[in-house]
Amino acid sequence: MSAERNRQVVIAKIPQGALQVSDFEVREVPVPEPGAGQLLVRTLRLSMDPATRARISDAGHPGLLGVGDVMAGSALAEVVTSLEPGFAPGDIVECYTGWQDYSLQEPGAVATFDKLGTLEEHLSIYGVSGLTGYFGMREVGEPAPGKTVLVSAAGGAVGHIAGQVAKQLGARVVGIVGSEEKGRWLTETLGFDAAINRRGEKLSAQLKTICPDGIDIYFDNVGGEILEAVLPRMNEHGRVVCCGYASQYDVAAPVTATRGVPALLVGKRLRMEGFVVMDYYDMKQAARETLAGWLAAGQIKLSVDMLEGLERAPEAFVGLFGGDNRGKRLVRVAEPAVNAG
Ligand SMILES: NC(=O)c1ccc[n+]([C@@H]2O[C@H](COP(=O)([O-])OP(=O)(O)OC[C@H]3O[C@@H](n4cnc5c(N)ncnc54)[C@H](OP(=O)(O)O)[C@@H]3O)[C@@H](O)[C@H]2O)c1
Questions:
Q1: Largest CA distance in the chain
Q2: By alpha-carbon position, which residue is closest to atom 42 of ligand 1?
Q3: 3-state secondary structure of 237
Q4: Domain coordinates in residue numbering, the chain
């Protein structure tokens, strides 16, 4: 790999509370040499996923990341050298590269790029985020005409797709976001029926005004106080789709309280269901075709929010918890040597 160096973004210190850009630092090391059966890959686009925050810890457990470790993350990457017959230089693969230019991969740990759309589309609407919004809303939430659907983190990677899927299926859709301006983007550009600013007036009061007939389906990306405010506003036989709990990833002591929940579930006959996108991967192809059709017809819009350069990964990631992103946040690390178009 000649004189080329491998830039790595590593954890410089373990935050006691909210993550800061200064908790990371960049170092340079030699590009690693692949061993028998391995691939050397070069990172092209890094995916920013809030749940990865939970891996930074001083607990020292296997799988958790401590000081000096390369920050974890999934990416699309290009094969540079292959010592495995099934792969060739120029192939694009999806794998856990971490935040670095180059990484070694085992063939069993990479997924091939099936050239459905651009690199950005592959990591957003046709990838984990888009499919999570699609399956979570369609299969767990089951929206229908006449239903009111509420989505939290509605301007994010999963949320902006989940909300638009519910619109396609005929529901009235309300999104919760972190600013007035993001709320206007939901209604004016993405076709949501209404938006709520979680940093505005008291949430329970806003829910009462904007969802006067209650909420039939709540797609919960954040948990915490927002879930607490929404549950009492749910209609009987409503469904709460538990997708994630982003409000708890970046705090020193995540909440664990559940004591009041059974009373609400029983009284309102609610169904509260968690899901993981991979549970629905046997339907992945059909989902991608449906999303591609809606996208091509202009019925839904995709928002990709890309920052330029590996060194901006900390800023891109920390910003997720401030709600800086609109749609799927990615970091462009490099362009493919061979056009993946
Ligand atoms: N179940 C699955 O299979 C699966 C798969 C992928 C992702 N997920 C989950 O889906 C959720 C969304 O992920 P994503 O990748 O689409 O992230 P994202 O929504 O693009 O980014 C996170 C968003 O959460 C909101 N947020 C951050 N901190 C918050 C807080 N303290 N309180 C309320 N809102 C807060 C921010 O939006 P605003 O400031 O605009 O509110 C931010 O933009 C996450 O919980 C993730 O773990 C689940």
A1: 67
A2: 323
A3: strand
A4: 5-124+303-332, 131-296
173: Cβ–Cβ under 8 A, 6 or more apart, which residues?
149, 150, 151, 163, 164, 166, 167, 192, 193
Residues 11, 65 contacting (CB under 8 angstroms) = yes
Note the pLDDT tens digit of each residue in 317-337: 999 999 999 999 999 999 999
Q: Which residues approach ligand 1 with their CB closer than 6 A?
A: 49-51, 128-129, 132, 153, 155-159, 177-178, 182, 198, 221-222, 226, 243-247, 275-277, 320-321, 323, 325, 329
Tally of helices (H runs) and strands (E runs) in the chain: 9, 15
Tell me, yes or no, if the two domains 5-124+303-332 and 131-296 fold the same way.
Answer: no
Computed over every residue of the chain, the mean pLDDT equals 95
306-310, long-range: CB < 8 A, 24+ apart: 306/45, 306/120, 306/330, 306/331, 306/332, 307/331, 307/332, 308/332, 309/333, 310/7, 310/9, 310/26, 310/43, 310/46, 310/99, 310/100, 310/101
* Residue whose C-alpha is closest to residue 78's, from 44, 50, 37: 44
Element (H, E) at 35: none
In tens, the pLDDT along 22-70 reads: 999 999 999 999 999 999 999 999 999 999 999 998 777 778 999 999 9
**Could you tell me if 154 and 218 are in contact, meaning their C-beta atoms sit under 8 angstroms apart?**
no
> Domain 5-124+303-332 belongs to what architecture?
Alpha-Beta Complex (3.90)
User: Is the model's pLDDT at 16 over the cut of 60?
Assistant: yes
Query: Rounded to the nearest whole angstrom, what is the distance from the C-alpha of residue 85 to the centroid of ligand 1?
Result: 39
- Whose CA is closest to atom 36 on ligand 1? 323
CATH number of 131-296: 3.40.50.720
Q: Which tokens in the block code for residue 281?
A: 């991967």
